[in-house]
User: Fold this.
Amino acid sequence: MKIQVSQILVQFLEKLGVQCIFGIPGSHILPVYDGLYDSSIRSLLVKHEQAAAFMAGGHARITGEVGACITTAGPGATNLVTGIASAYTDNLPVIAITGEAPTHIFGKGGLQESSGEGGSVDQVALFAGITRYHKLIERTDYLGSVLNQAAKHLLSGTPGPVVLSIPFNVQKELVDEAILEQVALTHPGSEPVIPELYIDQSLELIRAAKRPLIIAGYGCIRAGARSALSNISERLNIPVTSSLKAKGAIDERSALSLGSLGVTSGGYAMRYLEQEADLALILGAGFNERTSYVWDKKLLAGKKLIQVDNNPQQLQKVFRADLAVQADLGAYLRALDAAIQQQQLAAKAPVDVTAFIKAAQQDIDSAGERIFNQQFDHVKAFYRWLEQQFPDGLVMFDDNIVFAQNFYRVSSNDRFYPNTGISSLGHAIPAAIGAACTTKNPMFAMIGDGGFHMTAMELMTAVNYRIPLNIVLFNNNTMGLIRKNQHQHYNDRFIDCDFTNPDYAKLAQSFGINHVRV
Ligand SMILES: Cc1ncc(C[n+]2csc(CCOP(=O)(O)OP(=O)(O)O)c2C)c(N)n1
Ligand SMILES: [Mg+2]
Assistant:
């Protein structure tokens, strides 16, 4: 049967399992919107296309499935850029469908044309560096193949964003419905077998070590390896620290957790790594600028290193490992755990992590190296209170990395999403809205006033669709991080960091949102 390309696109999204699509219509994309009218996919009107992409990313994070957004041509598409770049840097499977001017006017200066012809904006070039796959679909004879490519990039390997731009006339062409059969959805295969050699070599290094330390990265969470990880840690009495993105890889309130590792953390894990550890197991962690204290050589010097990652590009990128294994973290950790039990590997000498943290804090205090002075004890108390109120299952999107990274201890069933990727201010509110569309768990966006101003109107999107959401707004009338920088490095020459805030109680009231000032 022949149906419109616009309908094929909607069916393609349904086939990908898309549940919600976030966007703003414009005349160049109305045929696809019309297709959504009859679809099971829930379409949500947002306030700005950047937020639509952030929402799709938030949705993808919480579900592990494809998130979707939709815009018109020209400004609709260009507004997506930061949101798509964020999905790109965070490896999130996000699909964006954008409209485009009809092909017969390409190069003639059509309204919102972005074909790249005749001096118009070149959408293909614009998205080339921030997508895994982008296509301006000018013809239908290859449509099945294009959709198949798109699915491949969304679902397999290291996922990432896909942008499909479809000219208005192409959306209305008729094609055979059967072309969707060309789209192969990759299913997770059977658990890959980890060569025994790697497990043996790992065991050998672990056996020889006195004080191993596990540095868990987001790869452990993505691979669903949390329980294997904490089994190994508990069985062998190995403390665990995580990258910022992997907070909660093991329960941060447990006795073996050193909290996260990195410049804006409490600094306990860094001290343990430097002073105590003789073997570091770096598991699915990229060891980026923040985690590695700007690649401080002292941290890993003189230690044995095991690195495991499913992405070969991460292996030995910034350090040499004694054992580097390309493997699925879930398969590796489960195999390692089984071998540890089978060979009855002895637990390591008890390390009292609580006592270590206490002593480290005293050191930090007496050296005057505390990141946060007493004034911030209120913020710490707030995060402790939050832990008590929501002991398990809380979801937190954090714009304001410094507080939560230090103070909030993520439990095993919590989900903590820091503003990683390109670290764009204003990400937390729309990302949390995208996630809240599919989970009933308590949802929090933690955000500074500077970040809040960037995407605050999306609160009306949440109001519009009755999406439950808590915003914790840190209201200090300044871009605190910038102010701190200008204090430390620019001799207090404060420029463009301070600003006047609205009356938030009135703002909330006018939006129809409850407001409490703490
Ligand atoms: C889109 C974007 N623009 C600029 C920055 C640079 N930046 C990083 S932190 C920051 C200030 C954040 O201010 P606020 O949200 O009020 O948090 P605070 O530091 O005051 O806690 C800025 C401007 C950024 N990360 N993203
Ligand atoms: Mg601020």
User: Anything to note?
Assistant: The radius of gyration is 25 Å.
